[in-house]
Amino acid sequence: MADVFSVIPASVLRNLSDKLYEKRKNAALEVEGIVKQLAAAGDHDKISAVINLLASEFTYSPQANHRKGGLIGLAAATVGLTSEAAQHLEQIVPPVLASFSDQDSRVRYYACEALYNIAKLSADSDANVQSAAHLLDRLVKDIVTESDQFSIEEFIPLLRERMNVLNPYVRQFLVGWITVLDSVPDIDMLGFLPDFLDGLFNMLSDSSHEIRQQADSALSEFLQEIKNSPSVDYGRMAEILVQRAASQDEFTRLTAITWINEFVKLGGDQLIPYYADILGAILPCISDKEEKIRVVARETNEELRSIKADPAEGFDVGAILTIARRQLSGEWEATRIEALHWISTLLKRHRMEVLSSLDDIFDTLLKVLSDPSDEVVLLVLEVHACIAEDPPHFRQLVIFLVHNFRVDNSLLEKRGALIIRRLCVLLDAERVYRELSTILEGESDLDFASIMVQALNLILLTSSELSELRNLLKDSLVNPAGKNLFVSLYASWCHSPMAIISLCLLAQTYQHASAVIHSLVEEDINVKFLVQLDKLIRLLETPIFAYLRLQLLEPGRYIWLLKALYGLLMLLPQQSAAFKILRTRLKAVPSYSFNGEQLRRTSSGNGQILHHMPSGSQITEDGDGIPDGASSHNGINFTARLQQFEKMQHQHRVHTKVQAQLRNSSISLSREVQRPEEPQHPPALDMSGPPSRSSRRSPVQ
């Protein structure tokens, strides 16, 4: 013992039992250095003497501070021994393990820490050190599994602190301890699982296959225990799983989403506050590149959506909507689709809560109308339709929709028909068209209004979803509902001459159609007009206008129809395909039904057209029994309507001229800026000749 005191200074021994932790720690570092020097010199007798001193005089001392210092000293001595530790473990380990049953909790804590520091040898790459560490590991495990004095509560904090180390040897050591402790019947490792679960998941992406396998095996065992346990802390673990479900490692994501799937089935009310976070983890996984992950994620999503939680139980509708809104801006189609399904489900179950948060998601829902996926667009339209069941929200939807069409021309061009047709199915076609017409009637952007009306008109004439609307318009002259719809659409259809003519042909107001055609002036008949006219002529050959073509079999009764069609024919270039199509159709009109008196009256524009048919059995020609210029028929004031159309077209002509002048001014200014510097003595201009042809040409309209 005297030799030991000559090796370790008295001041070190005194500090090793000091009440201050810092002094004990510094003394332990001195011990580590002394033992390291002895090991280098190969003096194992003195090393044994030092260990015996620390054990007998300190760890077994009745003084608590002595016992604490002894435990720290033994750990330090082991570190100093490094690769020579194996031959001294039988001296070091017993006093440390004996301290696990100490009455002082702080001593027990230092015992755990000392044992861990001793076991850190397992991180050493030296084969001899590894062998010693494994020997220690087996020894301690055997003692712990057979002891009833081991304090798991004091061991877990030490384990948690070291779970995220990267050293593969330490990781193996930790997983081994977790597995062994979990196998002890008297130790409830499941209750402490949230403390080290994240560390286990972190090991699933280790570069070592063996470590990944060990971590996966441990996790599988714990998951099975969870299924069989009546009491589990799902909440804390759910937070960990949500984070791990976004891991870059594929195997980690699959394991995390598998755990989440089981938690959703087992967690019950405990998980309600975590539904939004769980959904945030599930939705991206639905579009994962790995099929196994996609399958589990879809199953979990369906399971979660089937749970009818109540806001009174902590179910946060706003948080779910926030997650869904965020995913709507993502790059994966499948995820966007499921996000919309969630919004739709919430609208059905918690409508008031969703509408109270509508301002947070409405802009995003509108942007989704431009989504490249048709399926996504159709789904978001269903969501919009569900929201628009309330009149204020309906009008807001249509206003925003028109706004989006105005600012994004490609949306109207690529998706306009799809959006309008679907809304007509979901929200009633007449209601949608009436609202659109009301908004477009006062549209200040005349160019956009014209384009929008032309698009709506084409949808009206061609879509199967709007067949009932077309049938209603066909009865405009005999049915008050049809008349009201005709008048409602007429106001905005005035933005496009061809749309008005189409509407009149559809509503069988043929005399008015002829009047509209005759009211057109030179500026109205431009390239755009002729393109629209070409489309109409081709539409007249479709089944939708079969009734009109059949009416041509009785030209004596439908003279205004014939006159309107001939008027269109006169507007078409003779070499155009549309001219040939319409002329061919008109050549097929039988001549036997014509009456000279009828033709004379029609051409004069002042006579009546007589119709020989049973009372109320057929639709009459517009203006039947009414001289040209009469104010109304079935409540429709055609004179006022024509004035309305002419006024709107005048606005369009003025607008076109102003735009042309602005373009010319811009071009002139640009040329002025680009013109090179003139010479000091410019040549005189020849003003004697007439202006060139190009200088007299008016701007293209």
Description of the molecule:
The protein has 701 residues and is mainly alpha-helical. It has helices at 2-7, 10-16, 21-41, 44-59, 64-81, 89-98, 105-119, 127-146, 152-161, 168-183, 193-203, 209-228, 234-244, 250-266, 275-285, 291-306, 317-328, 333-349, 351-356, 358-367, 374-387, 391-407, 409-427, 429-441, 446-462, 467-474, 480-493, 497-507, 510-519, 527-539, 546-551, 559-571, 577-587, 596-604, 638-674, 693-696. Helix 5 runs antiparallel to helix 6. It starts with a helix and ends in a 5-residue tail after the last helix. Mean pLDDT is 83; it is low at 603-631 and 680-701. Its main location: membrane. Residues 660-671 have a biased composition (Polar residues). InterPro entries: HEAT_type_2 (IPR021133), Vac14 (IPR026825), VAC14_Fig4p-bd (IPR021841).
Task: Supply database-style keywords.
701 residues; mainly alpha; 69% helix; Vacuolar protein 14 C-terminal Fig4-binding domain-containing protein; HEAT_type_2; repeat; membrane
